[in-house]
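User: Hi! Is it possible to get a structure for several chains at once, not just one? Here's what I have:
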Amino acid sequence: MTSPLLSLSGLTKAYPGVVANDNVSFEVQPGEVHALLGENGAGKSTLVKMIYGLVRPDSGQMVLHGEAFAPTEPSAARAAGVAMVFQHFSLFDALNVAENVALGMENPPPMGDLATRIREVSTTYGLPLDPARTVGELSAGERQRVEIIRCLLQDPRLLIMDEPTSVLTPQEVDILFETLRKLTSEGVAILYISHKLEEIRTLCDHATILRLGKNVGTCIPRDTSARDMAELMVGSAFAAPERAGRDLGEVALELKDLTAVSSSAFGTSLKGITLSVRQGEILGLGGVAGNGQDELLAVLSGEMRSNADAVQFMGQPIGRLGPGPRRKMGLLTAPEERLGHAAAPDMSLTENALLTGAEREQLMQRGFLRWSAAEAFARRIIEAFDVRTPGPDVAARALSGGNLQKFVIGREVMQRPEVLVVNQPTWGVDAAAAAAIRQALLDLAANGTAVICISQDLDELMEISDRFGALNEGRLSEIRPAQGLSVDEIGLMMGGAHGMEVAHV
Ligand SMILES: Nc1ncnc2c1ncn2[C@@H]1O[C@H](COP(=O)(O)OP(=O)(O)OP(=O)(O)O)[C@@H](O)[C@H]1O
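Assistant: Yes, the chains can be modeled jointly so their relative placement is included. Here is the combined structure:
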């Protein structure tokens, strides 16, 4: 048997109120794809941050290529052959691909040489990318390729990937997996974090499962069902969402030939969008990211204005109203970007609860903030949505990604909206919590709320939507009943955006 590439023994890291990693030990072999599984807050990101030199363990040892390994910063980890592709890309939109790659390198070669090397790596590993293109014009999949190529130019022995497929089309996922397989055939090891269990079954050789910071077991994903893996992570069985029959009420929200120019140079303008959603109904909107989803959410939240008549709430024109008045009426929204847009990173959960809940939860009285009521509201969200955190005083940025997502969705759901618009409601959320969020949206609709769910997850949309439409380059397809729609029909509705194929529903 070959000696392991990386072995971890007894790694422990505590934060105030939580032990993020508790005596974690396992090994990664050269040439394998090793999955790191665990529910939200289980400690996956903390563990890989220790390997990448972003977080220092309180105790425990790491051995890489047979030598003691204790990186104090990412450059030390990179020098030892460890590379990492993050969930959120750190790229500059206005610069081209080669310039962005150079910015992430310790000693970048001259631009001409770098462009040649980028072309070589991109051809060798099947990652099509033109070094001269401006990054702002690239799709999410192409941006990820910039990050991957940046890593590959450093000749890594271990590549860490944190939820790499959440922004990719099914076709881009296939391309990525091909690249990863080529890398492993050359002996590179891949440490792979994902909540998408079917993908893990396709790609990964071994999996280590974390629960509440502890290593609770390993499995061979190919030989384990997705349901069994989910239960290993949670430690118990969980319920799949149930959809009750509902009577639909009045039209709650209507868009009439809505046209809006994106405020961003790299955004997508909305072109003639017409739709309506009734009380008690869930309208699912699919499409590849970057086809107008963010702009549609902004035009509904009031962050972007339109013609007054183009947006109608219970028959009233509201296109010129800002976010405050819309919230007061009961039109609530939860954007996709949880850190920075949906939540203020350095503010506590109580302060974040206040940010969107002040009006409808009466957290303000005669100009004064009612702090104890705001804290009680934050506690109710934490309780109802099973947000794993020591308490409401914790800053939003200290929550694991999935737990913050649960908080952001819970905050809007608990305000009993008349209309709720969500974008990617279960992004980065584990299987059990995703089921709970979908159930909460179904329950809201059962109580008469009109829901618009924008998502790239077609399985999710088919599970909860009554009717389905797709965004493509700022236009909306025909809207059709979701039940009985075939994969081919959905593919046609998505209109081949960025040449994508719909591989699964
Ligand atoms: N900087 C920090 N300060 C305080 N607590 C933190 C910090 N970073 C992580 N934690 C806590 O450590 C625990 C583990 O978080 P971590 O981000 O590693 O989980 P995860 O498994 O990656 O979750 P997810 O799947 O939601 O991304 C969580 O309880 C989280 O709140």
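The radius of gyration is 23 Å. Residues 15, 18, 20, 38, 40-46, 388-389, 398-403, 428 surround adenosine-5'-triphosphate (CB under 6 Å).

User: Great, thank you!
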